[in-house]
Amino acid sequence: MRILKFGGTSVGSAARMRSVADLIQSSEPRIVVLSAMAGTTNSLVAIAKLLFEGEIQAATSQTEILRQHYMMVARELLPEPAIAEEAISQLGTCFKTIFGLMRQPLSASGERVILAQGELLSTLLFHRYLTAIRGQEAVLLPALEFMRLDANDEPDDAYIREHLTQQLAPHTAQALFITQGYICRNAKGDIDNLKRGGSDYSASLIGAAAGADEIQIWTDIDGLHNNDPRVVEGTYPIRELSFDEAAELAYFGAKILHPSSVLPARQYNIPVRLLNTMQPEAPGTLISSKTGSEAIKAVAAKDGLVAIKIKSSRMLLAHGFLRSVFEVFERYRTPIDMITTSEVAVSLTIDDATHLTEILAELRDFGSVEIDENQTIICLVGNLIQENHGSARLVFNALGDIPLRMISYGGSPNNISLLVNTADKMRTLKALNAGLFQRQIFHSDASDD
Ligand code: ASP
Ligand code: MG
């Protein structure tokens, strides 16, 4: 079994859906996981927000605009009027669900039902197109029947495996399945989702549950790049990454892949291939248990961090100090990204500042506390520590006089993290690009993008 996931841009119009239909042709069994069409989830988020604010009129007209848009796409994708009208009436059930939720004040679970409609709409349309226009046999698998969260809101692997197997069982002769990314049910059985960008995670969970031999994530860029293409010129796709390297890059800013999606693939050792719908023949990025040979492969940046420094004389020669500090973050369920320590102080970063005030109040019991907001983590990923002496020198030479707030090296063999002011992010990325990758550009085959 092979899993092919297509993102919002890849299914963003009738023309894009036709290209996806070309790309999935194969005699091998495969499950195609689709996102909502580009822009749809954002619209649904906006509609729910209007409803929370009591703006029923505005929510109604925004939903009506979305409905008109889908009618237009349906007519374009399904050029036979009878087929188009039938599809429009099927799509209509999704819009009826949304309009139905406007009669009473919106609840959080109502919002999740609204958000789920995007993937239901895209898969319905695509499946109709495949079967009715291209005459291809394909089964529409309802993700809400097998994607499930447990009581901790984590994917319930055993449930997913059992129920996906049940859904596939009646169709032994079938080779092509279409299903929704992102949407699921929670432990109570209510409609829920895997958070924004979660379709990648769906694909990986489905791949793990189905024992897939490969998971393909199709987007509109040719793989994970060595640096942020929005900031730096001349970036190139990295051909091979290990699961650990990919997880670090996805978490620290490379927007192309949902960070959690590496985990199920790594657990079952299923290679993940990142491919480009606009350039299907390009090799993209292969994420597997193998690590390539280059020392520093890529740089990514994550904004929005707060650095907190706790300075305490109690830390000197004491044990249990760090535990007490971490317990504060634990109590507020706030993850820590980066940590550095000296004998009398500890600095750490968080990206979720929801409970910052309470956390700071508790930390003040330990000593003096300072914070720096608007910080950016620059994450360097590669095969950095064991075999490659001199990576650190290359990095520091490249950085020149850019001020660094924190440095973390040695936490894993694949990562060096630097914390800089967000105001210095652009020049840091550019300096690292010039110092680390410029040499490689000349012999990389990257100029094909
Ligand atoms: N449609 C959802 C979103 O826009 C999930 C996804 O595309 O991965 O976040
Ligand atoms: Mg995405």
TrEMBL record:
Stored CDD domains: AAK_AK-HSDH-like, ACT_AKiii-LysC-EC-like_1
The keyword Nucleotide-binding is assigned to this record: yes
All residue ranges annotated as the Aspartokinase ACT domain in the record: 378-434
Pathway in which this enzyme or protein is active: Amino-acid biosynthesis; L-methionine biosynthesis via de novo pathway; L-homoserine from L-aspartate: step 1/3; Amino-acid biosynthesis; L-threonine biosynthesis; L-threonine from L-aspartate: step 1/5; Amino-acid biosynthesis; L-lysine biosynthesis via DAP pathway; (S)-tetrahydrodipicolinate from L-aspartate: step 1/4
GO BP annotations, alphabetical order: homoserine biosynthetic process; lysine biosynthetic process via diaminopimelate; threonine biosynthetic process
Binding-site residues, ATP: 5-8, 219-220, 230
Superkingdom, natural source: Bacteria
Reactions performed catalytically: L-aspartate + ATP = 4-phospho-L-aspartate + ADP
Main enzyme class: transferase
Cellular-component GO terms for this entry: cytosol
Enzyme nomenclature, EC number: 2.7.2.4
Record keywords, A-Z: Amino-acid biosynthesis, ATP-binding, Kinase, Nucleotide-binding, Transferase
Single annotated GO MF: ATP binding
Family listed: Belongs to the aspartokinase family.
PANTHER family: ASPARTATE KINASE (PTHR21499), ASPARTOKINASE (PTHR21499:SF59)
Record-given protein name: Aspartokinase
